[in-house]
Write a structure and sequence with these properties.
about 140 residues; alpha+beta; CBS-domain; three-stranded mixed beta sheet; two-stranded antiparallel ribbon; 5 strands
């Protein structure tokens, strides 16, 4: 199964913020949309980074004035991405080993969407349930 399978069912709705916007704006967007991460887009819609709830909480513990600072001061700028044709097992391995929950999908420099570890697990679960149903049907047909 491929990343494109998830994007086909999930869609490509993205929540983004600019590097110069305040961390408080990021917090408000995360809460409003009930999400855990925002993509940080520079001019020309180029992926500049990613900011998560975890990033904010970890920095807030050290810097109480963080909410007034720009998103660029907190974001992860070295973003690992995946391609639509990447295998879900490989993507799940990377996400688990690198300990992050969200992965932007990029192809030829174009941001196509975002997948989460929950999306990956759900797709794998649904695939395995389909396989089980098929096998059960085949067994019942031979009886």
């Amino acid at each position: 199964m491929k990343v494109s399978t998830i994007l086909a069912t999930k869609g490509n709705k993205l929540y983004t913020i600019a590097p110069a916007q305040a961390v408080s704006e990021a917090v408000a967007m995360l809460a409003t949309h009930n999400i855990g991460v925002l993509l940080v887009l520079a001019e020309g819609d180029q992926l500049a980074g990613i900011i998560s709830e975890r990033d904010i909480v970890r920095h807030l513990a050290k810097r109480p004035d963080l909410l007034d600072k720009p998103v660029a001061s907190v974001m992860t700028s070295k973003v690992i991405t995946c391609l639509p044709q990447d295998d879900l097992m490989s993507v799940a391995h990377v996400m688990t080993e690198r300990r992050f929950r969200h992965l932007p999908v990029v192809e030829d420099g174009e941001l196509l969407g975002m997948i989460s570890i929950g999306d990956v697990l759900k797709a794998q679960r649904d695939y395995y349930h389909g396989q089980i149903d098929t096998l059960e049907t085949q067994i019942l047909a031979t009886e």
